[in-house]
User: Fold this.
Amino acid sequence: MSIVQISGLKKYFDAVRAVDGVDLAIDQGEFLVILGPSGCGKTTLMRMIAGLEKPTAGQIEIGGEDVTELPPRKRGVSMVFQSYALYPHMNVFNNIAFPLRAQRRELKFDKRQIREKVVNTARLLEIDMLLDRRPRQLSGGQRQRVAIARAMVTQPAVLLLDEPLSNLDAKLRANARDELRDFQRSSNITAVFVTHDQIEAMGLGDRIVVMSEGKIQQIGSPQRIYDDPANEFVATFLGSPSMNILSADRFRFGFRPEHFLPKTLHDNPENSRIFHYYVKRVEYLGSDRLVYGYVRGHDKDLTLAKVPSNVRVSLDIEGDYEFAVHYRDIKFFDLESGRRIEQQNLAKVR
Amino acid sequence: MFRLAYPLDNRRFVGLIFLSPALLYIVLLVGFPFLLAIAFGFSDVTVGDTNLNFVGLQNYLAVWENDIFRQVFETTIRFTLVSQVFILIFANILAVIFTQNFTGKWFARFIFILPWATPVSLAMIGWLWMLDTKYSPIDYLLLQTGFLGPNGILSNNRNLFWLATPDLSQISVIFVQVWRMTPLATVILMAGLSSIPTDILDQAEVDGARFMRALLQIKLPLILPIMVIALLFSMITMFGDMTVVYVLTRGGPVDYTRVLGLYSFQVGIEGGNLAQGAAISLFAFPLLLAMAIFMLRTASRAEVQ
Assistant:
């Protein structure tokens, strides 16, 4: 059952089409990640769900109710900002209690209930010993937990998270990702998570919404989006290094560097497309070797191969090799729209 | 061979060059008169006899025992405190209004800043006409609307005598001071309000805070340090001011609107007793110093993030 239903949503800032016709249904209890490069409209979309931005056109329903014209407090949503936006002059307790007090008219909790709720939520996030501290006395990870506690204390229908991990250092981030996911599962809250980081998106999302230029490019599970991209943008945006794209007469086609391997490593070379590959440079990355080179007939498109280090194939600089890609791993794209073309066109590849 | 480039590579030298206008200003126009005033305060110098003879605390004792001085001192403090209350209230309200979005905001801001941008003496002459004993336009309007004149609601007289009765003259002076000082405080508070991160305000909105809660529990506490600075500026300016009363009332009627700055000027320059005039103005110094220290400490302690 979908808890949030978005239809025909648009937001124009003068000439800029920040969000340009978005239809999206968010399921109860799912972890939905909105992924896209900066300026793709993902934050604007989230701010419209929160009620901080008024749509130019379209409709938002939350829990079956049209909330398009309602202020944030009437929507049953809460939000964690990238900066955490903790109130610096309040201690942790008052920070977490703030939404309960502000929504007194809607929630109707008395003092004792507020205290109970704050303490319980703080305990859940293991920050109950920090309740008397001021935000500036907390570490980055602790601040993030306070922000999540404050967002959770009202038991919102939807929790909106705007790149909440990007202010943490790399080590903490992996850990925080884990905890966030566990916490979301155990509380069964619906979470919408905005990020430009594909690793975060792949690791966290039940489903990923890939956005670009104000439009949704594809919605699907992380694996679906990675293995079965709807268009060239999604194909190249996900994956690092990104998918190789080569031009043919009537379309473009692409394959991921990790699928582009020396022919001898393929079990069934007859199921694979063979390319003559000229190796220009090899980077040794520990677990993999990253090979830079050119496919014969496409000497303008730098083509990368990611070869596991543990396979004993020697790759020399300025050497010519036979590389192969399994047919199922080759994706075809329309020249003009960039849209995926199905496999039956395979025969037309030169 | 001397080349300008070498001394200009020296950070200390360049620093000194850049600081020198400020230093010159402070030494010549603040430091020197201040030290001179202290020297005068301990001497018997007058306009007629400019010899500096040391007389110890004699001037200060004489001033302290003077009833007029005590009344002047009290009036100064009263005017300052009362006007600050109104300035703070109005400045907060106006700052909140001017940081909202509405059409004509630019023009409204421009009109509003004028009292502060106008030279004080010029503005005061304007007010002198507005509050004139006989020809005040305010009185005229009140007369036309039946508040004044025979059977008037406020008075049977045709005039209220804005600057001539004990109560009204004080109210008038405080009103004009508030009119003059509110814009600066407002501008400072507006800067404070717009320096609050938008994330925090958005967060408060998502958390469900309505306008008043966001104002009282988020915005005002966050700009408290800046408010203290605004208060400090306007209090110190006002405590030492003499222009307003000099133009409007000359301290009258009797001594009701005589303030420290004016009294010091009248005794020292107009009366010729430089020593006592200096002593009078120096009475304000420890008070202002204490006020400045207290407020700056409060501001730095309240500072967040």
